[in-house]
Amino acid sequence: MSGEKKFGTSAIGFNKSDVNAYIEKIIHEFDQRLKEKDDEISNLKLQIREMKSRYDSASQDNLNLSKEKERIASALIQAQEKADAIMAEAKARAEAEKARLEQTLESEREKIIDIKRDVKAMKNQVVDMLSKYQSLLNDVDTYIESRETEYTERSGDEA
Asked: Pick from 33, 52, 56: which is nearest to 44 by CA?
């Protein structure tokens, strides 16, 4: 209570109007403080409701973010797995293609070796044929020269 209150005295005790005024003042102060406390309680309840609402909203956002995070993580894992599978398939195809190309290359090398052998054989045949024709031409040339000599000798004898 607000300090010491001194009441005026009357014949039978304290002055009744002073006591009543003091009691009314105290009641008024009490009511005011009670109203302030009620207002403070109301404000605190409002703040609690707002905080609870924020908490609920934050919890929901957190839950949504967690779900989104899981979804993204799952998508990333699936993408990585798919990329790995694509890479493995591409490597397998590349290896198969490399093996096929090496086989084709080897086959072509064998063909080239066969062609070279055939060309060499043909060259030898052509050289042999040319040698035979050269020999035949030499024989024909010798024959013609001998006939020519014979003809000139016969013509010289007849003259």
From this structure: 52
pLDDT tens figures, 66-106: 999 999 999 999 999 999 999 999 999 999 999 999 999 99
3, part of any domain:
no
Q: Which residues lie across from 10 on neighbouring strands?
A: 13
Print the domain residue range for 118.
9-158
pTM of the model: 0.44
Amino acid type, 79: A
Farthest CA pair distance, the chain:
212
* Rounded CA separation 26/15 (Å): 17
Do the beta carbons of residue 43 and residue 49 sit within 8 Å?
no
The phi, psi pair for 32, rounded to 5°, reads -65, -45
Strands (E), 80-128: none
The answer to whether residue 2 sits within a structural domain is: no
Domain total in the chain:
1
Q: Is residue 86 part of a domain?
A: yes
Q: How far apart are CA 67 and CA 73, in angstroms?
A: 10
Structural domain contains residue 1: no
